[in-house]
Amino acid sequence: MRTVEHESPVKDDPRRMSGVQLARMGIRLLNKYDLMLQCVNCGETWTAATDSHGGLLPGYWFCPNKCNV
After folding, report:
1. DSSP 3-state assignment of 22?
2. Which tens digit of pLDDT belongs to each residue from 23-32?
């Protein structure tokens, strides 16, 4: 059975995404254990926000400088 690959950043974990998928979102994954992200445009770094269960919050990939919004 063939499945359609979805690219919904809200549901995907950046630790399991390819460099190409991350680049489309305008980010790089610097540290997969601490979820440290970096903006491709301005170089700003931040840690992805998580909820109390460790799940990623919507918009975790947005640069604090709003480069990739």
Report:
1. helix
2. 999 999 999 9
Please report the beta strands in the chain, taking only residues with DSSP state E, as ranges in sequence order. 27-31, 36-39, 45-47
- Does the model's pTM come out above 0.90? no
Q: Does some domain include residue 66?
A: no
d(CA 40, CA 52): 28
Cα–Cα distance measured from residue 3 to residue 69, given in angstroms and rounded to the nearest whole number:
29
Domains: count for the chain: 1
How is residue 23 written in tokens?
């680049």
Q: 26 is in which domain, residue-wise?
A: 1-59
Q: Which residue has the tokens 């979805």?
A: 6
Say if CB 28 and CB 37 are below 8 A apart. yes
